[in-house]
Amino acid sequence: MPYKVRNTIVLIILLIIVILGTILVNAKSVKKLDELEKSNKDNSEMIEKLKRTHPDLKNEEKVMESLENMKKKVLENCKFILKEDNSTLTYQYLIDITENFCPDVVFDFKVLKSGKDKELSFNSYNISGKANIESLHFFIFQIEYQSPLYTIESIKLSEESVTKIDTVNFAIVLNAYFNESGTDIKDIPLRSFKFTNLRYNPFYSRIHPPLDDAYELQFLNIYTSTIIGLTPYKVFMRDNNGKINTLTPGDKVAYGYLDHINWYKQAAVFKINRIGITEEEIIYIEGGNL
Fold first, then answer.
1. Contact at 8 Å (CB) between 267 and 237?
2. CB proximity list for 280: less than 8 A, separation 6 or greater
3. Which helix (DSSP H) or strand (DSSP E) does residue 215 occupy?
4. Which distant-in-sequence residues (6+ apart) come within 8 Å of 112 by Cβ?
5. Res 208 pLDDT > 80
6. pLDDT tens column, 21-72
7. Which residue(s) pair with 167 in the sheet?
8. How far apart are CA 80 and CA 175, in angstroms?
9. What is the pTM of this model?
10. CA–CA distances in Å: residue 211 to residues 80, 110, 137, 143
């Protein structure tokens, strides 16, 4: 067989093989494409059916946003066991509380022991120092009502001196509970609470002459201030130095707090305790007390 004829036959055979291979590959691709189109059609029909039976799916973004808001509310309103705890985490947590809510509370921090209570691990700490009794009260309030699960096991209080009847020495034993299925403390936001006024100081007579308290006098003195503006939700007062102070119900003032706003009478109503008895003080927008 001539060389030329033989090469021609080989080329024809190779061409036939390539054509057949291409046909087979294309056939598989067409079949796969048909399957994908059918699957896509089925999925589209299923989605449309779900949309008809579950109209909320049309508002997917709103549903997801609502879910996130619900998760946030849970974090803000429930008690959570911590995922882990150590002296550094708890000390920083207590510092965050004092810096945000009661900055004049200064304390020493000491690790006491570690242990287990059923399936929960815990660390015990001793917190000791001295503070104004109202600030200490708010500090304890924060520990009790913030979301991380800390328990106060014991409290010891003693009057610092006769001359400082509003300042007490304190020692608190605090337990922090945690396990692996808990929540990271970094994922638990601090809840915001209004100042809660201590009803009276247990270290001196419930009824006494008016006292000049350096701690109280750092707050707005309503007796030397004037209301210059009022809304149903806020009071604007100018003190004797000309500084404008904005108050909402629950905000601290010297010897008490703003109780509520009487919008119809254009007055701010305060609860003040300078003599051991809480009295109601009403200041009208004109500036007079009654």
1. no
2. 259, 269, 270, 271, 272
3. none
4. 124, 125, 126, 173
5. no
6. 555 555 555 566 566 667 667 767 776 776 666 665 556 556 556 556 555 5
7. 132
8. 14
9. 0.48
10. 42, 35, 20, 30
Cα angle 103-107-113, degrees, rounded to a multiple of 5: 135
Amino acid letter, residue 202: P
Closest CA to 158 of 133, 176, 193: 133
Q: Could you please report the per-residue DSSP string of 29-75?
A: HHHHHHHHHHHHHHHHHHHHHHHHH-GGGGGHHHHHHHHHHHHHHHH
Instruction: Quote the tokens at residue 166.
Output: 């509003």
Backbone angles phi, psi at 285, to 5 degrees: -65, -20
* pLDDT tens profile 155-186: 888 876 555 557 888 999 999 999 888 888 88
Distance CA 214, CA 64 (A): 51
Query: What average pLDDT does the chain have?
Result: 78
Reported residue count of the chain is 290
Token duo for residue 95: 């510092």
The Cα–Cα gap between 192 and 249 comes to 14
Asked whether the CA dihedral 210, 202, 214, 135 is positive or negative, the reply is negative
